[in-house]
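The records we work with from here on pair a chain with its fold. Taken together, the tokens spell out the fold as the letters spell out the chain. The record below shows the convention in full.
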Amino acid sequence: MERSIARAKLQALHCTEALGVEKYNEAFSQLVGQLPHLWEEDIVEDYIKGLPNSIAFDVVKAKTHTLLETQKEAAEIEAFLSSRAKGAWRTLRFPSAYSREWRGERST
């Protein structure tokens, strides 16, 4: 695939409720694999831009640095929000960003 087409597809890809974070992660990673020589910082920024605001806000607060860390954080936040919406908040393990803040630790 031509680089400019793959880059446009990467920037146009968005996580929807129907798609979910797991499928978004797969599609995003596949496109990134077709684009060598990208800066990790730019990849993470494009990834976060494609997330729903409800997830993106907390992912940014987690201050992740790599795509893999960011994808993992987004999946944990999606699971947290999904469980909370279903009323299962009492038994839920909080995502890592929440637990770090709860313990008074800061992400670096």
